[in-house]
Design goal:
By secondary structure, the chain is mostly helical. The protein has one domain. The chain contains 10 helices and 2 strands. A two-stranded antiparallel sheet has the order 1-2. The protein is globular, with a radius of gyration of 18 Å.
Length: about 250
């Protein structure tokens, strides 16, 4: 357990050294989205919620997903390229603890980015509220760990940064944009509304939006169960993938 927290502390210090990159890029992206939607869709709403406020909650979750996934993936691919991956191979730490340490560091980065982004951009959405603070923290924690574990899995498998670019651009980003960030799933015609509900990312966005705005396309407890289930499955996947990847690298 001590080694796990040491690895967690190392990862937190690593992204703190890249604080400008950690914070600046997602915040600029968020400001651009809010500016465009605020100007072009002013006066429109979703179930009485101003459209910009509706989008704001989704953008915050997008930041959490992107930060949580990219943090461990970048660290592990970099470790392979410069040779520091051997630290994980020689350290007396279990594969599951490695995954958990990276996932918690990913959550920490995502949470920091979200908090700073909220402080800087909340003036765009004066109507934004938090209806359930405890459930909101649970949603952020599970999402951070879920995508942190997914990032560890991919980081252990990937060989170079080109793979990361491909996955972020052609898999993760399309899933995020089709998960209901910019529109309510209920407004989609059949069968696209049903298909969207099978997008795992829909449940992360749906639960977070419920905890802040009180609006949900899918029952929030169902979304919570789906997120928790995926997170548990990912933990066991990370154990297996990490054990195999480190053994292969060592040999």
């Amino acid at each position: 357990m001590t080694y796990m927290w040491a690895l967690y502390a190392r990862e937190v210090k690593r992204f703190q050294k890249l604080l400008i990159d950690t914070l600046l890029s997602p915040i600029i992206q968020m400001v651009l989205f809010l500016t465009v939607f605020g100007i072009t869709l002013q006066g429109q709403d979703v179930e009485g919620i101003p459209f910009v406020t509706f989008v704001f909650a989704g953008l915050l979750m997008m930041i959490m997903v992107n930060s949580s996934f990219s943090n461990p993936t970048f660290a592990l691919i970099l470790g392979k390229n410069v040779g520091t991956i051997i630290d994980l191979q020689l350290a007396p730490i279990k594969p599951g603890s490695i995954g958990l340490a990276y996932a918690l560091a990913a959550f920490s980065r995502g949470l920091l980015t979200i908090l700073v982004a909220m402080l800087i951009t909340v003036w765009f959405v004066p109507e934004f509220t938090i209806s359930n603070p405890f459930l909101m923290l649970v949603a952020l924690l599970l999402t951070g760990i879920q995508f942190g574990l997914l990032g560890v899995t991919f980081g252990m498998i990937a060989k170079n940064f080109e793979s990361l670019t491909i996955v972020m651009g052609f898999v993760l980003q399309p899933m995020i944009f089709l998960a209901g960030i910019f529109y309510p799933i209920a407004s989609l015609p059949a069968p696209f509304d049903l298909i969207s509900r099978f997008n795992p990312l829909h449940h992360n966005i749906n639960l977070f939006r419920y905890t802040t705005l009180g609006y949900a396309d899918t029952h929030p407890m169902l979304s919570l169960a789906v997120i928790a289930g995926i997170t548990i499955v990912m933990y066991f996947v990370v154990q297996r993938v990490t054990r195999t990847a480190l053994r292969k690298s060592y040999s």
